[in-house]
Amino acid sequence: ALRQAFLSVEGVTDLIAKIVDSVYTAAEYDEFLLFKYMIIKSVSAGKMFPVEIDATDIRNTAIAFRGTSNVLPFVSSK
User: Among 2-11, 18-27, 29-38, 56-65, which is the least confidently predicted range?
Assistant: First the structure.
């Protein structure tokens, strides 16, 4: 694949695109692992807790999500 990349301009362009794509994919995976770790750590420390919502109506669910998100400042220990 690497040898074929240098046979044409399109090959070089495709190689660069694949390299850039792999960097973004790795960054997204790292972010996923980081958030997973942060959630596990927060749950273990008792900083996250379940909140009951009325899931029978999608509007009530959306209202509950908006209401909860509106009370969270940018950085909070709640």
Answer: 2-11
Q: Which two tokens stand for residue 18?
A: 């694949």
CA dihedral sign, ordered 8, 13, 14, 16: positive
Distances (CA, A) of 16 to 3, 21, 55: 14, 8, 46
- Sign of torsion over alpha carbons 4, 6, 8, 11: positive
Tokens of 48: 């996250």
Token representation of residue 26:
């790795």
Give residue limits of the domains in the chain. Answer: 2-70
DSSP designation for 76: -
Residue 26 · residue 34 · CB < 8 Å: no
pTM of the model: 0.58
**CA gap 6, 47 in Å, rounded:** 53
